[in-house]
Amino acid sequence: xxAIRNFTAPPLEWLDPVVREPxxxxxxxxxxxxxxxxxxxxxxxATAETADGTWTFRETGILSTLVxxxxxGAQTDLAQFxxxxxxxxxxxxxxxxxxxxxxxxxxxxxxxxDMKGKAVLxxxxxxxxxxxxxxxxxxxxxxxxxxxxxxxxxxxxxxxxWYLLVLHQ
Length: 169
Fold this sequence. Notes:
Helices cover about 10% and strands about 45% of the residues. The chain is globular and about 45 Å long. The protein has a twelve-stranded antiparallel beta barrel with strand order 1-2-3-4-5-6-7-8-9-10-11-12. The chain has one helix spanning about 155-169; strands spanning about 10-15, 25-30, 30-40, 45-50, 55-60, 65-70, 80-85, 90-95, 100-105, 110-115, 120-125, 140-145. The protein has a single domain, classed as Beta Barrel (Porin), CATH 2.40.160. It is mainly beta.
């Protein structure tokens, strides 16, 4: 796998290569840059893999949920996502860096924004083609802010943002 930050064209796109299986790939043309696999029959646990690392995402709680993010094999959280109203939330890393996850109304999709409000990463779900039989393929275009490409957390944000969209669609 190649690093996500090295690709500016063609557009990055999450897709499900096999419909009905909870496995997804991030593509730049024919190149696979990341994978996300949800545990079968348990959509609240996933593993994400990129050239920059492998992480696990685990949602806990019933009325008050929390998503724990860990580097693969670690016993402590790297970050926690605190869901809010209507799918929004705050992603807090143990070092104090935080990002807001929110819906982007003017342009569609969802985005991670830094705490100053600047868009770091946006994911836009693509509607299925007209007449496509059920089940529909799931796709989303990924846009990384030009000033954000060098941020070492972009691979994790890209995978985790997709996890949130898949989990709540």
